[in-house]
Amino acid sequence: MPCRDILNEISPSALAAELSASAILINYWTKAVNNAVWMMLMLAVVVGLNFAPAHFYGEFEFWFASIKLVTILCLRILGIVLDLGGGPMHDRIGFRYWKNPGPFIEFLGIQGTAGRFLGFWPALIQATVSCVGTEITAITAGEAKNPKKALPSAIRKVTIRIWVFYILGTFVIGLIMQSNEPRLNLNSHDAASSPFVIAISNSGIKILPS
């Protein structure tokens, strides 16, 4: 891919978010190195892959996407297993956390309905940002050989992916993680605040969180 096409193919905001996420993930194991170092290394990898021949770029894209897909699906399955009591402690959670403490908690100590709404609102904004980009499917109609046939199929597949990767993931997290868990800290600078990491630790599985 020519250098001039890099910014056209990669959203700058999405790239920045991914670079930050990579540094946060590495911080789970070590904080001895400044995050800027990890981010620059990851940026070098991204730029290098974009300069690589098309078949190398496609090969790396395939394997990286496959690893991500398998990881996401495994976490969903693991979450359901833990919820049904399949962990070492055999604690069947079920819908316990939907009742106590419930899905909504008061934000910044603001009491009552207003506090619960203010807790819901930033979560809604973050969820909306995560779904940004699905409209690009319609833009590709200009490059499709048969858009009348290809576009409806692509849109249906995007909808299925949203249900499987986002909505199902949120549902599973709601099952295995209580909303008032103190380790769910948005200001944390490593992956220890991940609901899946916390749930795995709570279940008594020692090897997976690391």
Explain this structure.
With 210 residues, the protein is mostly helical. 63% of the residues lie in helices and 0% in strands. It has helices spanning 6-9, 12-27, 35-51, 54-83, 96-99, 112-130, 136-139, 147-176, 195-203. Helix 2 (12-27) packs across helix 3. Keywords: Membrane, Transmembrane, Transmembrane helix. It is found in: Membrane. Residues 14-209 form the Amino acid permease/ SLC12A domain.
Q: Number of helical runs?
A: 9
Taking the sheet with the most strands, its summary is: none
Distance between the termini: 36 Å
Structural classification: mainly alpha
Tally of extended strands? Answer: 0
Order of helices and strands: HHHHHHHHH
Rg over CA atoms: 20 Å
The proportion of residues in beta strands is under 5%
Globally, the shape reads globular
**Which spans of ≥5 residues are poorly predicted at pLDDT below 50?**
1-9
What is the overall pLDDT average? 81
Oligomer: single chain
Helix content: 55-70%
